[in-house]
Write a structure and sequence with these properties.
Structural class: alpha+beta
Distance between the termini: 8 Å
Shape: globular
Strand content: 15-25%
Radius of gyration: 11 Å
Strand order of the largest sheet: 1-2-3-4-5
Number of strands: 5
Number of helices: 3
Largest sheet: 5 strands, antiparallel
């Protein structure tokens, strides 16, 4: 699997907003309260790279593939 291409394609569309329904866009980031898209501001997803971090839990990853894996309890493979 080409994870870089999957990440690029997912970021180009509406998928990040689907994953994080309560997120607000601030510049080139989506901000919300958790990896599940709850209201708040502790979670940030960079819309250019897909890198993400939840400052309240310490969870982080480098792309949207790792976000989906973490959120849904899946392996990245």
């Amino acid at each position: 699997m080409n994870f870089a291409e999957i990440n690029k394609t997912a970021l180009a569309g509406e998928y990040p907003r689907y994953l994080l329904p309560k997120a607000k866009q601030v510049g080139r980031e989506l901000q919300c309260g958790s990896i599940h898209g709850d209201p708040g501001r502790s979670f940030c997803l960079n819309l250019d790279s897909g890198a993400w971090i939840d400052n309240s839990t310490g969870q982080k990853g480098g792309d949207i593939v790792s976000l989906v894996a973490e959120r849904d309890g899946l392996s990245q493979g």
